[in-house]
Amino acid sequence: MKKFLTASLSILALGAVSTAASAEGSITAVSWGGAYTKSQVKAYHEPFTAKTGIKINSVDYSGGIAEVKAQVEAGNVSWDIVDVELSDAVRGCDEGIFEKIDHSTLPAGADGKPAQEDFLPGTLHECAVANIVWSTIYAYDDTKIGDKKPTTMADFFDTKTWAGKRGLRKGPKPNLEFALIADGIAAKDVYAELAKPEAIDRAFAKLATIKGDVVWWEAGAQPPQLLADGEVLMTTAYNGRIFNAVAAENKPFVIVWDGQVWDIDLWAIPKGAPNKDKALQFLKFSTETEQLANQAKYIAYGPARLSSAPLVGKYEDGKIDMGPQMPTAPANLTNAVQNDFEWWADNQDALNERFNAWLAQ
């Protein structure tokens, strides 16, 4: 009996060692930092490590595919999985710097619906899988704005009624959309208008009306800080960053949803990622129904799966109902535009050059 128990314990010990060995290692996950990465750490990283033993090294970046492309072309890839905007996912796939993903291998929804039917339309792409719906909005500090409150995108550009600096992301996207909406184009018609060369001239002309009052930002953490420091009266920002400042830091900031440009973020795996299999394992885990719904507990970004929506509850403090905070809440979509990734994939490089030349004038 003793020999049997000893043998059994030895087998169990060997099994434990084998399991630990298979779970050894780590992956490098690249994202946008701040409240957004914090929400991923809480909803994705920590439970994934607890389940698999695989550690997550979190790295921040400022977007785009230049760094990924440089690593792939140099044959020295150090990133395993990257959170990208849709236009960058498409460009990166077209340029062969992201791995293709078989959507049939993704987990079904919590209700049993196949992944291809459970993800929101347009959120699964050849080389990427969406996790969240987010939005670029503008916001102001309610204690500094006065009695008359801005409510439209046109108000953001009205420096006569609301004198003061404006914060804008340094680049043409989504400032061209905002400028046209402020100039009277309905959000739903923005990209039809941008197909006309004269509309781009019109957008730059509108931006020029506030150019002297603009403080340019590049990282998502900057807009809430610009508001808090009083460096700007209003600023465009990612809606989740402003929500976090209000909910977690008690800042008196107000979001204006009119003219919001909403988008999705997706996971993509660089071609030649050193830990590709582990990265794919993490991608599948983090885009399951429960993890996507759980992320909404920490930040006001909507989950990309239909089956996640019923599971979205309150903020982590247990007080704020997160449903109305989402970019996709009906009240927030009255005059909203979805980022047209194809248009930007086709025009981004040329417009970046034009924007930089315009900025230098």
Report on this structure.
The protein is globular, with a radius of gyration of 22 Å. The protein has helices spanning 2-23, 34-52, 66-74, 86-94, 115-118, 153-156, 175-182, 190-194, 197-208, 222-228, 239-249, 276-286, 289-295, 341-360, and strands spanning 26-31, 55-60, 81-85, 124-125, 128-141, 166-169, 214-217, 234-238, 253-268, 302-303, 337-338. The N and C termini lie far apart (87 Å). A hairpin with a 2-residue loop joins strand 4 and strand 5 (128-141). It is an alpha/beta fold and 361 residues long. It folds into 2 domains: 25-133 and 265-311, 3-Layer(aba) Sandwich (D-Maltodextrin-Binding Protein, domain 2); 136-261 and 340-360, 3-Layer(aba) Sandwich (D-Maltodextrin-Binding Protein, domain 2), CATH 3.40.190.10. It is 41% helix and 18% strand. It is built from 14 helices and 11 strands. Strands 1, 2, 3, 4, 5, 6, 7, 8, 9, 10 and 11 form an 11-stranded mixed sheet that branches.
